Amino acid sequence: MVLRLAEHEFNELLQYDVAREGSVAVRLRDGLWEPAANFLSRPSKEFRARLVDFGWEWIGAQGRAPEPLRAALEALHAGSLIIDDIEDDAPDRRGQPALHVAYGVPMALNCGNWLYFAALRMLRRLPLAVEAEIDLQHRFLDTLAMCHAGQALDISVRLSEIPKNDILPLVTTTTRWKTGALMALAASAAAVALRASKERVIVLHDFGLAFGTTLQMLDDLATLTKRTHRATRYEDLQLDRVTWPWAWLAETVDAETFDGLRARAARVAAGQDDPAELAETLSTLVATTGRAAARERLAAEREKLRALGEGASAVVAAFEVEIERLLACYD
Fold first, then answer.
1. What are the strands, taking DSSP E only, across 89-214?
2. Is the pLDDT of residue 227 over 60?
3. Lowest-confidence range among 2-16, 259-273, 317-331?
4. N or C, where is the chain less crowded by C-beta within 10 Å?
5. Measured distance CA(124)–CA(28) in Å, rounded
6. What is the per-residue DSSP string for 207-272?
7. Burial class (CB in 10 A: 0-12, 13-18, 19+), 270
8. Least confident interval from 40-49, 223-232, 275-284
9. Which has the closest alpha carbon to 148: 179, 170, 123?
10. pTM for the whole thing?
């Protein structure tokens, strides 16, 4: 789906080949489309496309959500993953070498950025009223800006440098901007495209935000509880990152215990201590609290969906089954 539509966007670039002899096309395909196709062809859970479908079905629209709308969300997400892997120097993604490992940083960086614009261009393929298209474009741009702001917080703030009382608000804001904003856009995109009521757009937006926050909580927790097999499992600890487990600890343990754990984290970040041992300790302290917090956050938004479900209650129920399947991956 996203691979096919992204290739359409790439092929449209070729009309600007002033040489008209094919040499530019060949080089552009090698330098841009090959890495893009490599990444987009890798297995993906397509959570964001599924959220678009959910929003489409929930507001009572006929058929399936339009492919360009679904693909635009997946292309935007793919671009963000490529850039994120460069910033973290991650070795792998979706079961293969990260794109900057396979093609080098310059080509990967350019490819990731191009996918942002390819996503925006895909929206032009939708048969929308002018007002709806402008609204969607604005929301895409706002989301991109928020994601970059969230990423800035994630990669610049160090656990060892931030006051204990600032950890929860920092992690909450970082998650809302970096992860939640894109999920919120995916959940509400169909309602915006079809000019649904403001109330429905807000409810779907808030549900997507809660869903994204829940996933980030569980993903942060999975890195401690052996639920992830990526080579970057201890990346957050080794990079001195501020994550949800530290936010939960800041709220639940006494200052002396917290300071002792943070001192151990500083030694891990400096390469002087074993991250596996610290991960095991943190997991023991926050696993139960973390899973409960993640589920409670999502439960409140599910109730709002039920309240406005009307004739779409079956759609809500079907999506709840998918949510439980997803959450089970982290339990």
1. 92-93, 96-97
2. no
3. 317-331
4. C
5. 23
6. HHHHHHHHHHHHHHHHTTTT---STTTTHHHHTT---HHHHHHHHHS-HHHHHHHHHHHHHHHTTS
7. exposed
8. 223-232
9. 179
10. 0.89
Structural domains of the chain in order of their starting residue, each with its CATH number: 1-41+67-125 (1.10.600.10), 128-331 (1.10.600.10)
Rounded to an integer, what distance in angstroms lies between the CA atom of residue 77 and that of residue 2? Answer: 11
DSSP character string of 266-319 = HHHHTTSS-HHHHHHHHHHHHHHHHHHHHHHHHHHHHHHHHHT-GGGHHHHHHH
Residue with tokens 């757009």: 201
CA distance 146 to 179: 9
Instruction: Kindly tell me the burial class for residue 301, based on how many C-beta atoms sit within 10 Å of its own C-beta (0-12, 13-18, 19 or more).
Output: buried
